[in-house]
Amino acid sequence: MTLKTLPAVLAAYTLCGIAAHATSVFSFDNDSLGTATTFTDTVNGLSATFSSNADPGGFVVYPSIFQTLTGNVLGDPGPAGQDGLTLSVNFSQALSAVTLDFATSDFFTPSPLTLNAYYNGTLVGTVTQTGQFLSGASFPEGEIALEAAAFNSFTVSSTAMDFAVDNITVAPTPEPASFCLLMLGLTVTGGAALWRRRRQDLRG
Predict the structure, then answer these.
(1) CB atoms closer than 10 angstroms to residue 97
(2) Share of the chain above pLDDT 70, in %
(3) ∠145-148-55 over CA atoms, to 5°?
(4) Residue 6: pLDDT band by 50, 70, 90 thresholds?
(5) What is the DSSP string of 109-175?
(6) How far apart (Å, rounded) are the C-alpha atoms in residues 188 and 4?
(7) What gap in Å lies between CA 25 and CA 173, rounded to an integer?
């Protein structure tokens, strides 16, 4: 590697770091209160479409009444007035991880909440989590997370009558970072080869 190739290597390394760690958070804080499914939000160029099996109006954006879910949240029942719904979220590109905060409408025993991840309609991962009653909280709250090789949609459901979600944090698939690292390797290799050729020319 020569001094001339060093800036290119550093730039590629920086881009790889960005690609490997970029995340998007869907918090609903920029959505108008009363926004109901189906609707689409876009964060950092990633679009997420929120829908339910009772649309139009299955879930709705409303001010949080919880502790760990802050600002606006997305929950049911929405204008459709139906309970026991499944929330579906479809993304514009493949992802590798998702984490979200949730609360369930339980007054006594917390109900489990299940997250299923899909890639083009095929189930690729599932996880179930139960919230807890925090000090001073009226409803059980929790966090649920899932990692998979690649998924572009997921569903959230619960045995509770209703539930709410917030701070949906997603990470892209690792392929962009792998591609960057490949380009970085090619840059270094190319620079080294050029350096060797120049040395040979000078010796000749």
Answers:
(1) 18
(2) 75
(3) 65
(4) very low
(5) SPPEEEEEEEETTEEEEEEEEE-B--TT-SS-EEEEEEEEEEEEEEEEEESSS-EEEEEEEEEE-SH
(6) 11
(7) 15
Residue 40 clears pLDDT 60, i.e. is over it: yes
By three-state DSSP, how is residue 179 classified? helix
Per-residue exposure over 110-125, b if at least 16 CB sit within 10 Å of its own CB, e if not = bbebebbbbbeeeebb
Quickly tell me which residue has 């701070």 as its tokens: 167
Higher pLDDT, 78 or 6: 78
Tokens of 158: 């619960």
Cα angle 166, 158, 154; round to 5: 60
Helix axes 175-203 and 6-21, enclosed angle (nearest 10): 170
pTM of the model: 0.77
Residue type, 5: T
Token output for 88: 């579906």
Distance CA 200, CA 16 (A): 33
- Going along the chain from its start, the domains and CATH numbers come out as 23-173 (2.60.120.260)
Which residues, at least 6 apart from 200, have a Cβ–Cβ distance to it below 8 Å? Answer: none
Report pLDDT for 185.
59
